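User: Can you fold this complex?
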Amino acid sequence: MIRLEDTSGSDIAGAITAERHRMGSPTTGMVLTLLILADESCQSDATLAAIAAARLHPMRVLTLIPRPQDQQTRLDAEVSVGGDGGPGETAVIRLRGRLAEHANSVAVPLLLPDTPVVAFWPSDAPEVPGDDPIGRHAQRRITDAAAARDPAAALRRRAAGYQPGDTDLTWARLTPWRSLLATVFDAPVGRVTGGHVHAEAGDPSALLLAAWLRRRLKATLEIVPQDEPRNGSQVRRGATGVTGVTLQTRAGEIRVDRIDERTATLLRPGAPETSIALPSGALAELLAEELRRLDPDEAYGSALRGAVA
Amino acid sequence: MSSVRGNPLRDPQDQRLPRVAGPCSMVLFGVTGDLSRRKVMPAIYDLCNRGLLPPGFGLVGVARRDWAEQDFAQIVHDAVREHARTPFNEATWSRLCEGLRLVPGDLADAATYAELARVLADLDQVRGTNGNHAFYLSIPPGMFPVVVEHLKSSRLAEPSGDSWRRVVIEKPFGHDLASAQHLNHVVQEVFPSGSVFRIDHYLGKETVQNLLAVRFANAMFEPLWNANFIDNVQITMAEDIGIGGRAGYYDGIGAARDVIQNHLLQLLALVAMEEPLSFDADDVREEKQKALRAVRLPRDLGKHAVRGQYATGWQGGVPVRGYLEEDGIPPSSRTETFAALRLDLDTRRWAGVPFYLRTGKRLGRRVTEVAVIFKRAPHLPFERTAVQELGNNALVFRIQPDEGMTLRFGAKVPGTSSIQVRDVSMDFQYGDSFVDSSPEAYERLILDVLLGDPPLFPRHEEVELGWRILDPVLDFWSAKGAPEPYVSGGWGPHGQYAMIERDGRTWRRP
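Assistant: Here's the predicted assembly.
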């Protein structure tokens, strides 16, 4: 790792190239640049997750940490290339003092030429990510409503400021749930007349899941909030707060209950209860999923509109 | 898949949902065997762990009578624990266990199949597998006829209504054309060709798709992909290991049957084929078959087919035994552990471009690659001394390990006062698939079987075309004496160099 103090965007770019040469691998197969906008409390988790995801999607990871509270106005950076951190390039950049407002000017010389840019706000996100100076570089903008103090309010803001290319990790966390439910419907089950999504109170994923099911099944679905997470100790922080889904059909009830971090039970009409995998992905896996496709996620867009309607 | 079409929760725009197999079970014959323990069962566990198996999935093991149900569970447990790629998780394990059944019995005994039928009917009832069952024959090919015949007579091979029955067989698919045709006849008597899945685990889907993507998604390679620009193609699969404990399987089979017939000819077909109309199973297969049908053997096999057998030596700093000293190998064995072969394709695209195929055990290092070697530039406006060190341009697909691509071209040596050109290699490495959501080759193959998705499984036509190409070579060798011995840890027998130098070319050191 190289530490650069009181530096500039182009010096950081130079340091990355120099480090690449020093490692003896002047060519790279980078597929994108990931810009992470984070504060000190979450930058480390987000950067480590991005480095892990870079093994699947080789990329340049730029973590920008605005520190307006600092007295001095200056730029410090830690640069690392390859090695234990995987094939990617990483720069953790601290924007001290007044520089905190000029993240964009630091980022511009560091974007890889002619490859996609993705922006990621692991905690607080701008009102309209697509209009943010950093967000404007990005064709994919990843936020995480679950990390906000009021996740449901955050999700409403996401909907108000939505532009194609936006996406939120609360949606990615639902993929195992959605996949499981879709599997149940691979066998004909008849019309769904109604149902419930059980979730921890205020859980943003539940809003999206219910909206998605409502729209796809054309049925009325209610969210049943639970004050106490049923298996709170077993469901790790950051997983969805969705604990169960019940759907009424003419033949009877379809019921899925999460029992721990990896497993759920499934009850269908005419079949005995079975347990089934319901993995909850770590941040690295969620990010890797987000980076697999960089075109607008329309399924998310319509679920988001439905969630706040 | 008809069930998916009517599924309100599946939307073509929704790209995140993975494809999950419908309700089904898998019956594993030879469940206590090495392959089943090292590969098949761990892959099933990994699929389960990733949430890619349907609810109520059943796994039925058929094994000799002396296994008790608990022992079976223990065997699967240990195998999975040791070999699975995803972390071992007791909850996933107990979930898989709910669908685990053992049918002990003799594979030649009708009672075994009666019991199997009862167990499957029970799974349909209790687990909701809906009559969808895949039979995985992880047994020696000699046993295929017995098992397949019993599956037929016990009516286990017959689906009813919407359900399906599939059979999975592993290579080797015969040991020559006649035996392959016989094997195919036996299997297709009972299962229609769309229900037969031949697993070539080595040629994972990822590899094939990478190759197809590079060839057909880019504008800059395909125009050069012909005899006007390409000088020759070298396909190498080198292993650093010996035969290990596989003496019983390997002796009498040899490198050509084990590797060239299937793996290397499949790679040749993928490199040489014309652009398929689409990436549908049938379209890709059609083009591969056309390429294989165009293959012509050299006129003088004595000059363009070479075989060798590894002798004692040092392998990466470790002393190793020669083939004839391996346990279970008769000292008079003539089985080759190295084979190299020149093939030509009679098409306009490839006229005059030789394809050199070689494979061997106990070679310098483990590597599989396809090297497309270009012709030299028709005119070089440099002093002769300036380009003395310049070789041919090359595009190399690394299949394993470190899957990726290397492009070799000439560049100026920096700093010298006069211009001097030498070769440089530009390297691209595919990202690895580390995350839970990206299954490895075996998992993808099994998932494709359960989904009924056959694109990359070779069909019997391809298998038979492979033998048609190789049989004359094998006949030629069987009439000759012993293979040429080569020192372990190098790149094989001298004969291979004489073979390629005769054509005015050299092997690339992989």
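Residues 224 and 230 of chain B are 7 Å apart (CA to CA). Chain B touches chain A through 50 residues (CB under 8 Å).
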